[in-house]
Amino acid sequence: MKILVTGGAGYVGSHFVKLMSSLGSDITVIDNLSRGHKQALPANVKFFQIGVEEYDKVVSVLKEKDFDAVIHFAAYAYVGESVGKPDLYYENNVIGSYRLIKAAAESGIKNFIFSSTCSVYGNPANVPISEDQYPIPINPYAKSKLIIENILHDFESVFGMRYAALRYFNAAGCDLDGEIGESHKPEPHLIPNVLLAALGKKKLFIYGNDYQTPDGTCIRDYIHVNDLAEAHLKAIELLKAGGKSYVINLGSGRGYSNLEIIKTASLVTGGQIPFEFAPRRKGDPAILMANIKSAGELLNWKPKYNLEDIISSTFSWLKNPRY
Question: Tens digit of pLDDT for each residue in 219-235?
């Protein structure tokens, strides 16, 4: 397959690019490297350092090949940052994605895969969360993703560009070969921060211990990044085979509290991990956990990796990061 990947030098994007390159696909990546790492890309991947908002440059890249699909990973994705800087998120995520979608549709792209988020559900009425729950996002990051889903829906009716909006739960873990991994500055995600604390490289804060959960801390559904990469492959195959556009959850189907993550990480690392409680962060729901029945039925997909795999692969990467 010939695939254009936006944000392919980022965390989830680079793991997808590695998978598809290993399968012999012809991959082209565009990434402005504002938060990505060119070192994460295989040498045989064609790379353009441009942003998705650069309409004319994106069109020029799209004209180079008869692409089977566009896979759109490029986005700012920090909930806390979005609350403090909503303008940044609407400009980068919404306006940038709109220009990319317009370029793809007008260039004749027929299949578009979008990295959405479970955050669009806000504080869900029911858990585990199924796709039929009405989305009520409570932070600018989630709002930006839902706007993009709506743009794709509206563009399909005019241009016939089918799409899949993949609502990730918490992407976690790293490449099992240790070649690529998670590298953010600053690091916003719980599991790497827990492990950085285990390595004595960071002070760990747990935000909120008064949620309506069994131990008072937030509960999240963690999905290995390699499982996400495989789900994207299956999402492309379904659209290429003539499948209709769809929205689908991608998670493990299990939830773990922040304190359970620390306990499991202590077992993996072999030592106690110090932490302190801090006040809740604005925009954090108490529980986000996926119902993944639709992903199993529609994509014939289910996650292969468990929480211990996620934590151990992340720990291996953080002990010897390559970028």
Answer: 999 999 999 999 999 99
Q: What is the C-alpha separation between 152 and 148, in angstroms, rounded?
A: 6
Which amino acid makes up residue 116? S
Q: Select which of 11, 76, 78, 141 is catalytic.
A: 141
Q: Does this model's pTM top 0.85?
A: yes
How many other β-carbons are positioned within 10 Å of the β-carbon of residue 16? 27
- Domain enclosing residue 37, as ranges: 2-172+222-250
Residue 89 tokens read as 């998120």
Instruction: Using alpha carbons, select from 282, 305, 306, 302 the residue that is nearest to residue 294.
Output: 302
Residues 125, 23 within the same domain: yes
CATH number of the domain at 75, please: 3.40.50.720
Q: Which pair of tokens denotes residue 231?
A: 């789900």
Note the pLDDT tens digit of each residue in 185-217: 889 999 999 999 999 999 999 999 999 999 999
User: 141 an active-site residue?
Assistant: yes
